[in-house]
Design brief:
With 241 residues, the protein is an alpha+beta fold. It folds into three domains: 38 residues, no CATH class; 112 residues, Nucleoside Triphosphate Pyrophosphohydrolase; 65 residues, no CATH class. Helices cover 16% and strands 30% of the residues. The chain contains three helices and twelve strands; from the N terminus they run E-E-E-E-E-E-E-H-E-E-E-H-E-E-H. The longest helix is centred in the C-terminal third of the chain and has 20 residues.
């Protein structure tokens, strides 16, 4: 996909000086929209957003019903656009509080997802597994409702990115609970792993159970997301009491 004149159809005036914009072939032989007066350039970039994967003590997932467009009235993960002064992690914590009333922190970055937006053409979303620290569950800001649901009762979600994060999480948890993995490390770490998992296409490459007398299991990178989860089978698989 390349940028075309159609991409700039609503960009008429410079945000810097107010003069008229012009579409030209610029550096790297790409079409850009530049101000005819001051030379300010408008770049057509994806809009960054953050999404939260949040579980309660029953291992139920928190979802919200969207109050505004896009996809008003549909269910989604707590999420929102990243402000200019925020990191993706800060945006996730902020959206969690604003839309659900819960205080939280990031446990682990899950993945990113680049997808279509009916408003901004393209959004790049960053998904995070979150830990609840306090607060009271109450829908707010862009959320009309907020509730915890089991995977079996999970309603259809509005965004492909949110389904991607949930499916990634479910795949990894399934691997851990079904194989008795104790010591897990991501392929991005340099330490020799007992189990190696590709975060884009989770699969066990090699694994060994924890033996009596071994050090307590370590969890690195993506697998840090399992820390503190209430799933008893997962806790047993990871050697937790």
């Amino acid at each position: 996909m390349t940028i075309t004149k159609e991409s700039y159809k609503n960009i008429n005036y410079c945000l810097h000086c107010g003069n008229k914009m012009q579409i030209i072939t610029y550096r790297e032989n790409k079409l850009r929209c530049r101000c005819t007066n001051c030379g300010w350039t408008f770049y057509k970039n994806p809009i960054p957003a953050a999404a939260c994967v949040i579980f309660n003590e029953k291992n139920e997932l928190l979802v919200i019903k969207r109050k505004f467009e896009p996809n008003a009235g549909e269910w989604a993960l707590p999420s929102g656009y990243i402000e200019i002064y925020q990191t993706p992690e800060e945006a996730a914590v902020s959206e969690m509080k604003e839309e659900t009333g819960l205080d939280g922190e990031v446990i682990q970055f899950l993945d990113y997802y680049s997808g279509y937006s009916p408003i901004y053409e393209k959004v790049i979303s960053f998904g995070f597994l979150m830990r609840i620290l306090g607060g009271t569950l109450k829908a707010g800001d862009d959320a009309a409702e907020a509730k915890f649901v089991s995977f079996e009762k999970l309603p259809p979600l509005a965004f492909d990115s949110h389904n991607h994060y949930i499916n990634l999480y479910k795949n990894i948890i399934k691997l851990l609970t079904n194989t008795g993995i104790y010591d897990v490390i991501s392929h991005t770490e340099s330490t020799q792993p007992s189990a190696l998992i590709d975060v884009k296409n989770p699969q066990i490459i090699k694994a060994k159970p924890l033996k009596d007398g071994d050090a307590k299991p370590r969890i690195y990178s993506l697998m840090a997301m399992t820390a503190g989860l209430p799933n008893s089978n997962l806790n047993r698989a990871l050697g937790r009491k």
